[in-house]
Amino acid sequence: MSQADTIMSNPKLLSELVQLTSDAGDVILKIYHSDNFNVQNKLDESPVTAADLAAHHYIMAGLKRLTPSIPVVSEEDANSLSVAHNNTCYWLIDPLDGTKEFINKNGEFTVNLALIEANKPSFGLVGVPVANHVYWGGNRLGAFRQLQNQLEDASYIQCVKTQIPIRVLASKSHLNDATKQLIDQLGSSTLIQAGSSLKFIRIAEGLADYYPRLAPTCEWDTAAAQAVLEGAGGSVKQASGQSMVYGKADILNPHFIAMGLS
User: Nearest CA to 231 among 193, 200, 192?
Assistant: First the structure.
């Protein structure tokens, strides 16, 4: 039995992981509403805030308590990257995905926890702090959405067949010329812009159809939401058509296409 199966078959553990994701969102919101973000730039010039770091420490402590045998890779701990190269099963987390959206205060940021097994995301949790929603699921496990803080209130979510005009998602921060050209080639389409891993979630909920990403992302940006989308019947493939691979020597993803039911 995979670790993902173990989690889904253990209601108490699943509930605690969902609660951890929700509570990490509350940690972020306290700083979000304080206006004291303490914004700094990492070596790659990407921003990091006090909320990124606070959520990182909260999630790390929670996962150590709930799943002590599973190591963790976090965006906010560069030293943890080696974990992925030495383990076939590990957590991959982005404590605050959409830091630019957080700084701009548009609410479109998420908390991402993904379980990686054999170089694939087998299970993922995505929290949306501003909406107080948590999504979770994985390939062959289904996909679910909790609107409040009770696991029994969870509802099943599923992709829908592609609509015409096709509803295309694009990043608010990274809508480049290559992406615009690809969207033009699709024919009749409606453009929907969203931040962070919410783009995957919109497809999983049946609210969008297609998300081409022809700009840089890292593995922690996509893994959790990919698992949820696959659980909802969708797919995430490299632009070449090959499967996404996690735990690579280079943490950057190739260009990819996420979509619902064809």
Answer: 200
Q: What is the mean pLDDT of residues 135-163?
A: 89
Reply yes or no on whether the pLDDT at 151 is more than 70.
no
* Model pLDDT, residue 70: 98
CB atoms under 10 Å from CB of 85, counted, come to 10
Q: Which residue is it, tokens 């921003």?
A: 47
> Which residue has 């929700």 as its token pair?
22
Domains of the chain: 3-156 (3.30.540.10), 166-259 (3.40.190.80)
Backbone torsion region of residue 242, taken as left when φ is above 0, otherwise alpha when ψ lies between -120 and 50, otherwise beta: beta
Neighbouring residues of 98: CB distance < 8 A, sequence distance ≥ 6: 108, 109, 110, 195, 196, 197, 198
Q: Which amino acid is at 256?
A: F
Structure tokens at 242: 């090959």
* Strand ranges (E), 38-119: 40-41, 47-48, 72-74, 89-97, 110-117
CB–CB of 155/142 below 8 Å?
no
pLDDT surpasses 90 at 219? yes
Q: Is 205 helix (H, G, I), strand (E, B) or coil?
A: coil
Whether this prediction's pTM lies above 0.85 is answered by yes
Confidence of residue 77 (pLDDT cuts 50, 70, 90): very high
Please state the φ and ψ torsions of residue 6, each to the nearest 5 degrees.
-60, -45
| DSSP three-state, residue 97 | strand
Nearest 10 degrees: Cα torsion 91, 85, 195, 62: 20
pLDDT tens digits along 105-120? 999 999 999 999 999 9
